[in-house]
Amino acid sequence: MNNVSDRISGKIPNRKRALLAPWARVYPLYVMLIPGIVAIFIFQYIPMYGVIIAFQDFRPVHGFVGSRFVGLHWFRFVLNMPEFGNIIRNTFVIAVGKVIADQVVAITFALLLNEVRHSFYKRSLQTAVYLPNFLSWVIIGGIFIDILSTRGLFNDFIALLGFERQFFLGSNRWFQATMIWTDVWKQFGFNAILYLAALTNINPELYESGIIDGANRFKLVRYITIPGMMPTIILLATLNLGQIMEAGFEQILIMYNPAVYRTGDIIDTFVYRAGLIDAQFSLAAAVGLGKSVVAFFLIVISYKLAYKYAGYRIF
Amino acid sequence: MIVRDKSAASVTFDIVNYIFLGLLAATCLMPLLHMLAVSLSARAPASAGRVTFWPIGFHLDAYSYIINSHLFLNAFRVSVIRVVVGVSIQMSLVVLTAYPLTREPEELPGRNVIMWYFFFTMLFAGGLIPTFLLVRSLGLLDNFFALILPVALPVYSMVIMMNFFRTLPKSLYESAMIDGASHWVILGRIFIPLSKPAVATLSLFSMVFHWNEWFMGSIYLNDYYKWPLQTYLRQLLQNIDFSRITLADLDLLRRVSDRTFVSAQLFVATIPILAVYPFLQRYFVKGIVLGSVKE
């Protein structure tokens, strides 16, 4: 530390000098950081080191250090698996479908809700649509497995409208769409919060002058509300880029079954089955590492874009 | 918005919009209402699928049954303990870590390096398998703390806390410092009391997380008497993996996996969320906006 020399040479303004404290004043700050640093070291950084098992023929008895090194064996193995293409495709189709459907529904909902003038009605609507976000996938999965079964409530409704009953969670034709729309059901209200916050920040004078200029209600939405929401739309679009490997592990693990592995198995569920059910630790870790590396680049790019186009900084 | 557009098109739009949004909101509640109705119905109409949103052959059997089911009660108890312990640890670490990191690097040498140390974990993770192997080699399998320690510090919450601390007036900190207050006093007597909305938001999120989390329980805990409620429910829905179950429990399990009982258990597991939901709603909008949009 060069505090002492700085202080002697008087480089630092007076107000700040009082804050530049001797060691006795600094060390409590480090003490405060210790528990967090230790927790993160053990449960985040050691597993990062643990990814070396992806390059080993890992045997639990030999541990991270003693297992035999096999280079890229598992990566080659994975690329040659017959189900590899399906898993990647399912992951992207479901994840991209969710990002788009979630945001489009959220934006539409925010715009429509913004037109509701009775504040009690508006608040009641919000109370209802935010709720599903706070329920666990166990509960929601439990309800939907029941409702979407061939004799469930949703199929009763469809039959009432004259359509054929469908086994939504047991058919490869419907499974991906079912994942996307049950996710929309859970999240859209919550996703609308940021858009609604953006709408409340639009300067009311803009609307006043729009009205004076003779714009009707629909023109106000077109020329004031939507442009006012645009920065938030761009921000979330860029941030969501980092999510296109996240197809929804918990949701799918709870709602899928072997009949729909062809369309429903994603990277995360494959890793789970290979690693924790079949105890193929190295194979599973290799797939997981592949995903982490791609996700890393996606997240970094998405933060960079969010910074460039929306001025977003996380800290 | 000051002058109302009273044209026919506008009024028609309002009517359609109000009805549409009403239906949309109803869709969000209907699955829950259906579950509640099934749980309050007699077993025969429930398993025949005749119940929609109103109980048929109303009775509370399912509830009196689960109140006497030690499997359910035990899992509920584990979840309550988990929330209390988990939230306390998460919030302590969030606050303790966020405070030093709001200091400037010249006041806390190495501040930027430490910040990156935490931030990097938001970009890259070792993943499921190495984490599982670590927890296993730490001897935490079948240990309650396997549900707590791996998530002891949620970095994203810590960043939100840090961003909130930064909005507090600098002069408060400086004058306390000049008066000779220690960092512990400044954190405990100035920063935390002034950050009640942020602390409340993050505590509620932490609570919801620990209450809802089921996956860690399902991979780290084999002993079903140690499962939190959501893990127990997950296994119940799957009808599997009560591997080392006793005969008496198996008999009980057969009865509790009946449709009305499952619905009743799902509903009871939802009650704590419904109970804090009014508080959540008061704070989370602020919390979310705080976490993502900063000036």
Summary of the model, kept short:
Chain A is an all-alpha fold. Chain A has helices spanning about 5-10, 15, 25-50, 65, 75-80, 85-115, 120-130, 135-145, 155-160, 175-200, 205-210, 215-240, 250-255, 260-265, 265-275, 280-310; strands at about 55, 70.
Our count of domains of chain A comes out at 2
Largest sheet of chain B: none
What is the CATH class designation of the largest domain in chain A? Mainly Alpha
What is the radius of gyration of chain B computed over CA atoms, rounded to a whole number of angstroms? 25 Å
| Main β-sheet, spatial strand arrangement of chain A | 1-2
Largest sheet of chain A: 2 strands, antiparallel
CATH architecture name of the largest domain in chain A: Orthogonal Bundle
Structural class of chain B: mainly alpha
Strands of chain A, count: 2
Shape of chain A: globular
CATH fold description of the largest domain in chain B: MetI-like fold
Over the alpha carbons, how many angstroms does the gyration radius of chain A reach?
26 Å
Listing every helix as H and every strand as E from the N terminus to the C terminus, the arrangement of chain A reads HHHEHEHHHHHHHHHHHH
* CATH class wording of the largest domain in chain B: Mainly Alpha
Helix content of chain A: over 70%
Work out the number of β strands of chain B.
0
Q: CATH H-level name of the largest domain in chain B... which superfamily?
A: MetI-like
